[in-house]
């Protein structure tokens, strides 16, 4: 599955270039709990078709009712209006919160842009498809939109005069190795909105690859990393267990801004990898600090599918800026698990294990 924002904007572009009326809804404010974060977008076509989401579905149904002919009477009184963008709030009262399925106390406000310019949307989508980070500024007086290249991701900004929303290219994942674990991880990454590239020079692995939607390449992994040019919306994961394939690729990845660089393997393999890189590739403990391993969070995973869940969870946590608790670190959890049960230095729930 492609990046949701790009999918929404691409679909809205197609509707508008085909001459169909449509609106773009953006979550601009929230109070209390909210089903979708600020900056989330959805598009609504005149026939009631919806792409994207601003809630769990009830608000989308209400927008369809308000602004299209899908639920209109014979006189067609429900239409998408024209003119300047407008605001609409949901969840102000307890009854509305219940009606629209909002969490207790949740309120959100949307900006609705009516019939956004198709040519402008085409330019925006084209820049996103080219891997650029784009700032879109909408003038509230008349809905006119301007595009500018952004240097850094930014939160949505709303003033009395304009809305500024920054759209980024897809998050990307480069996987080294095309084995069974990679198939599970690639599948999860695709439905999480990542563009996935799988690299494996071994024909016997590429020949049985079965996950549609991922790009599969056969060049040597370190060359692929260089060509992939990871940025801060990219992650690189080595899954072959083969130092000849993994090590040089990881070293190239560590030179980039990739938000996550990691390799599969046991605690012993991870220690050996660090020692090998320090001895043969002039690395230091500091230069390898960003290299994650053993990767994943500790959930007791043993099968390829469970390991993929563990790894994907860690990648998403890092992507979303979430600090994971110390006790879900794989190495830490396994080290504690392996200590003798009567070791007085082991803490359980904050007290010595022997006293727990």
TrEMBL record:
<feature type="domain" description="XdhC- CoxI">
    <location>
        <begin position="15"/>
        <end position="74"/>
    </location>
</feature>
<protein>
    <submittedName>
        <fullName>XdhC family protein</fullName>
    </submittedName>
</protein>
<dbReference type="InterPro" id="IPR027051">
    <property type="entry name" value="XdhC_Rossmann_dom"/>
</dbReference>
<dbReference type="Pfam" id="PF02625">
    <property type="entry name" value="XdhC_CoxI"/>
</dbReference>
<dbReference type="InterPro" id="IPR003777">
    <property type="entry name" value="XdhC_CoxI"/>
</dbReference>
<feature type="domain" description="XdhC Rossmann">
    <location>
        <begin position="173"/>
        <end position="315"/>
    </location>
</feature>
<dbReference type="InterPro" id="IPR052698">
    <property type="entry name" value="MoCofactor_Util/Proc"/>
</dbReference>
<dbReference type="Pfam" id="PF13478">
    <property type="entry name" value="XdhC_C"/>
</dbReference>
